[in-house]
Target: histidine kinase
Amino acid sequence: MTEFSQDNMRLCYWNGSMNPFIIGIVGVGPGLKVLLDIINNEVFREFLPEMTLVAISDVHQKKDTLALGELGIPIYSSYAEMLEIHPDINLVIEMTGNNDMFSSIRKYLPESVSLMDHREIVFFCGLHDMALVKGNYKNNLAQQQVLIQSIIDEIREDIFLMDKNGSVVDLNSVVWRRAEIPKSDLIGKTCWNAARQRDGSVFCDKFDSECPFHKTLRSGQKEESLVTKVNKDGLLQYYRLYAYPVFDIRGEMSHIMVMHRDITERTNREKHQNQRDRLAVIGEMSTYLAHEIRNPLFAIGGFANSLFKSSTLNEKDREKVQIIVEETKRLDRLLTNMLNFVRSSHTSRKELNILAVVKNAAELMSIGYGQRGYKIEVCSVSPLPNVLGDEDALKQCTVNLIKNAVEAMPEGGVITLKLDLNGGDVVLQVTDTGVGMNEHEQDRVFNPFYSTKEDGSGLGLAMIKKIVEELGGRVKLASKPGIGTTVSLFLPPALDVAVTEANEVAAT
Model:
């Protein structure tokens, strides 16, 4: 059995060597308006060969003659006159409805001229209606496509339509605008050639069998996953990836729609709330434990001190007692740190020169670390507004950040403290060129009691974050393994409130 393609099915006689139809109409009838529309409307070129109306004859009613005269088509009293003046006519259409007229024309016409009678016009009427219906469907479909595309383009998430080979079939405007590549250049490419992070950096650069696309390809069902990415500035971002199977009319999966949703802000809010909840629990537990532990710890430390001072102890026993004394002191410091962390610091908020505070801290730390291969540089934009905060607390934050930078660079290096303005905030950035942090460490670095150091309490960055947020600011961390880390403190500036209020009063 021969199989015909869609192109073969469209082949018809007039697609061959047939010349265009030069038409002459004899008489007028009910189908004339439809016939004129079919001849003159380009819509019907999809269904019929090219047709040109050159003349009309045998119009016997005056009103019809006047109406047809507006078409600019010559009108003749008889078909014989029409054919004599227009010998190029190769199709005559009889519309008088008179059978004798049809027979007369047939006898008069040479065999090279085709003839249609008024009864065959009904097929043109049907074709006309079908074409109009198709046109309406095409217009509605086009409108729906424009509407759907507009809706998809307004969605903030990245949306890809992929074939089963992993090539991009379509995508929304968010994707190609962020990639700064024309949409046409991304069609047919793999998704990792098109996908970008929020800052325009590459989302992924290799095949990943655990990607939701490949999971959906295997399961035929909706799949999703949570992934973390580090952008070109070293900032950690969270994305939720979804893959949805698309089925054809036979129920077979033909395409897969993939969506990337940036949930960084939402995740940060959730983590912040979770941390607050954890801190509330830790606060209650720490207060209870400190009360229950400190009393016996105080007794242990007192007795240990007394034993240490005793003259009856030999040197070996004295060393053991000394260990007990030192460990009780360490436990007491740990309890103090825990209580300081969970309690509200009640830091004061007063106007201060943050540049002077930072320089003071840098000079203090340079005394101890300057001789060990560390260089601490301070740079600032000018002018820089004062900030609202507590001088001692911010100085301690700066000192702790410098200590962290030193610990990240055991071989020495440059630690940069930069002060700048960003979005209405005064920003202190402390940057090192040390070992950096991976995604897992960045995800947990602000958690209390988490530390990458063996003897660390895990309260350093958590305490800094707590102090800055209590002052009305925020903390951001960016890091790349082997490149270094930047911790940014966003601090609220001191506003000229008194002047502003005076101006408002004067204006009113």
